[in-house]
Amino acid sequence: AVPAPDLAQHSEPVTLPTDRRKGCPFDPPAELTQYRDEQPLRRLRFPDGHIGWLATGHSVCRAIMADARFSSRKELMHDPHMDIGDMEMPPAAPGEFLHMDEPQHGRYRKLLAGKFTVRRMRLLTERVEQVTADHLDAMEKAGTAVDLVSAFAKPIPAIMICELLGVPYQDRNSFQEQAATIFNSDNLDDKMAAYTAIQAYLTQLVAAKRTEPTDDILSDLTESDLTDEELIGVGFLVLAAGLDTTANMLGLGTFALLSNPDQLAALRSDPSLAGQAVEELLRYLTIADPMLRVALEDIEIDGRLIKAGEVIVVSLQAANRDPAKYPEPDRLDLHRKAIGHLAFGHGAHQCLGQQLARVEMSVAFPALLTRFPTLRLAVPPEEVPLRANPGIYGVQSLPVTWDKE
Ligand code: HEM
């Protein structure tokens, strides 16, 4: 007989370990790993006193992300990083479908999904190759040392998302800075000011697309039933997600490869390994973390009873290092098939831009390694500055050097 689930809520609440910069720069915080190995779903104390949950095991994280009884609505959340006091979390702005449930979420998602298909993104490969080659040329011209983040990791995905969406690339600088302030600053006034500036920029851009449509996603969307406000929200979400994610994977991923010379050599000698290598780097680094969900009703899961209103922090980085799913999970092994990793999330909100990100990475990593066979860090690894941002992890800069051929 199947034993009755243990619905006891007995585990002592812990607080969320967030700092990935201690110890190995690629590993989850040690406490997080320990919590997963003790209890893949356990009680968590939030900074505002809310007692919710922390999910760290691969199977329980996947189950939560797949279950529509767990909501993504922002206004129902408690923040796992800071106490926002009496301030209320606002609901999602129009178009900000990352923070919506069905059916609102599905309406936007359907409009956009057709624009990010595998087939369409593969068609972009040539353009990604060209943009990558241009940046490698510029690096070669610059001498024998650069900051790889500003010379390579940031601009390639930025050009791609700007072209796709129809944002003039010369406008990206101010946009990128404002987006960085919104996501990384802990000053609420600065965040609000940056948000207002981006809204103003997108308002005039949407107006321009309505009067003079160009060949891009934002112009296409002006033919849907979306209002200006919704178009601005969608534009903001897609642009922000496209600017800060792949860029951090390219920067941190290169750092990880340079720190694992055997893996670096494997990819350099066999560029056809790129697709598989990208999946393993996504698993190993899991830069977008954690995800938040809230129970809309009482839900029994993994032998626990989650009560309606309780918030769950879903730790994708802990899940992707779960030894129950991946043998020797803390080893970067480009030959492993990292199938089923959760780096792009799972379920209804699974990353919309994942095919684009895959194309960018599977072109950029091998091209970089082939062009610069002697590429190496220009500083000791412990001096590479890591991002403190709790949402998207990465390196702030990556000083690299190479020998002149
Ligand atoms: C959603 C990760 C690149 C656009 C997500 C989610 C994750 C993620 C984990 C799920 C969020 C949740 O369930 O709450 C990543 C990583 C990337 C990447 C690791 C790069 C390696 C991109 C790019 C775009 C993009 C290039 C631009 C098109 C989005 C959007 C969503 C999303 C619009 C929301 C989808 C929805 O709510 O239905 N991403 N992402 N992402 N991503 Fe990405």
Automatic annotation (TrEMBL):
SUPFAM superfamilies: Cytochrome P450 (SSF48264). InterPro entries: Cyt_P450, Cyt_P450_B, Cyt_P450_CS, Cyt_P450_sf. GO terms for molecular function: heme binding; iron ion binding; monooxygenase activity; oxidoreductase activity, acting on paired donors, with incorporation or reduction of molecular oxygen. PROSITE patterns: CYTOCHROME_P450. Keywords: Heme, Iron, Metal-binding, Monooxygenase, Oxidoreductase. It comes from the Bacteria. PANTHER family: CYTOCHROME P450 YJIB-RELATED, P450, PUTATIVE (EUROFUNG)-RELATED. Belongs to the cytochrome P450 family. This is Cytochrome P450. It comes from Streptomyces piniterrae. The lineage of its organism: Bacteria, Bacillati, Actinomycetota, Actinomycetes, Kitasatosporales.
